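Hello,

Our lab assistant flagged a job as stuck in the queue for most of the afternoon. It eventually completed. Since we weren't sure the result was trustworthy after the delay, we are filing this so someone can double-check. Below is the sequence as submitted and the structure that was eventually returned. Let us know if re-running is recommended.
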Amino acid sequence: MKKSKFIAYTTLFLIFANPVLAQNITCNTPISKNDSAKSILRKYGKDAILGDINGPEGEIYKGVILYPNNPKKRAEVLFYDEELKHPSSIQFENQSSTWNIAGLKIGDSLDKAVKINKNIISMSGFDWDYGGYASNLHNGFLSEKNQKCTIGIRFEPRANAQYNESLSGDRLIHSNNKALKKLNPVIIELSIGWAMQ
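-- returned structure --
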């Protein structure tokens, strides 16, 4: 085998075999539904810590933080139980994050998400604690039906964007809504989630 091919194959093997090098979050990478806080801390060593994670409505949860000192790789793992044995989700939201999920990254537009999903996306209105969260992926490519785990997406209007109250508050908005299409909000948070075991 030629040296260049050997190097290429070795590089690909390391990327897909080593969760520390992978930048794509899937149902099984960089953690899986069978991991616990203990196994994650053992796997990542100094690159993982137990810490407080902010949630909606001022809630604070105990969880595991991967790469806590590296904004580009920081990701937060939440759990169903106080013993931290059953992960519920892994999420990231830093604007400089290099993680992606199914080709989506922080800062991508609603248009791109719809294109990847190959179907409309429904979300809650903006300007409240649960604003902008995608609530229905309509069995598209990003849906649990096709991914075998739940992909969470949160959108937000671009800075200084002007929009009316029809896009705000506790209401359901579809991506084919004319006002929403014109606004074309961006992704500010991405996550992978699992059902309780």
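-- support follow-up --
The delay was a queue issue, not a problem with the job. The result is valid. The beta strands are 48-54, 60-66, 75-79, 87-92, 122-124, 134-136, 150-156, 172-174, 186-193. Residues 24-92 form one domain.
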